[in-house]
Amino acid sequence: MTWDWRRVPEDAAELAEQNDLINIGSLASLSQFGETWSWVPDPKGNFSVKSVKNLLHRSSPPIGECCFSWNNWVPRKVNIFGWRMALDRLPTRVALAHCNISMSSICCPFCCDKDESAYHLFAECAVSFIVWQMVSSWINIPPIYAFTIEDLLRVHEHIAGSVIVKKLIQAIVLISCWSLWKSRNDLIFSGTRVDISRLLAEIKSTSFLWVKHRAKMNLLDWADWCSFNIL
Ligand SMILES: [Zn+2]
Q: Does the residue 27 lie in any domain?
């Protein structure tokens, strides 16, 4: 049997997977009769959209268990972004590599110290670490340390305060993640180096505009927002 790969394995893990695949393939005996496709999840081997839905339902966490909750003080695109974060469905370099998309590097574009997973980008990277320190200092909450994406998306749940305070902090965390992702894209696609002070200024101004109008806080003042003297 001759293999025809689209690209060669790029690390030890991929090489091991390739060897496993070749071993599995070597065990298969091909018949001289015509082959047919069979959809394994269906007992009769028939493909249907319903069986795909059932498969996804069984393999995904129930919506109630997802660590993301919708926040209508930020736009829909930011909510969808947060939801994709929670499900680890953002197209980071590590995620793209898992989809067999070939890249010259999968390292983090900010620091190049580690591979760019969502966890690294938003929680572990030196850039996001500084951003979280600056954000927590701005909104007067204990320093944000996240060991998982879920930790980030649940920061607001552990802050003492009213429902409004928690919702406000959740909105700011989501906007911060959104802004980090935009900076990451600007760096990759336009070569624009990240400026953390400017990034924080963008987080403050964007969150001010969105929260003021979406939460109908018409009396919200920019100076008070910058000092987070609002409640
Ligand atoms: Zn990094």
A: no
Distance 88 CA to ligand 1 centre (A): 17
pLDDT tens series, the chain, 231 aa: 677 777 888 778 888 888 888 888 787 777 777 777 788 888 888 888 888 777 777 766 554 457 899 999 999 999 999 999 999 999 999 999 999 888 889 999 999 999 999 999 999 999 999 999 999 999 999 999 999 999 999 999 999 999 999 999 999 999 999 999 999 999 999 999 999 999 999 999 999 999 999 999 989 999 999 999 886
CA of 113 from ligand 1 middle (Å) equals 6
Distance 197 CA to ligand 1 centre (A): 17
Spacing, Cα 122 to ligand 1 middle (Å): 9
Range of the domain at 152: 67-227
Q: Is 169 part of a structural domain of the chain?
A: yes
Give me 38's structure tokens.
């069979």
Query: pTM value?
Result: 0.73
Query: Which residue has 């498969």 as its token pair?
Result: 55
What is the count of structural domains for the chain? Answer: 1
Class of residue 184 by CB neighbours under 10 A (exposed 0-12, middle 13-18, buried 19+)? buried
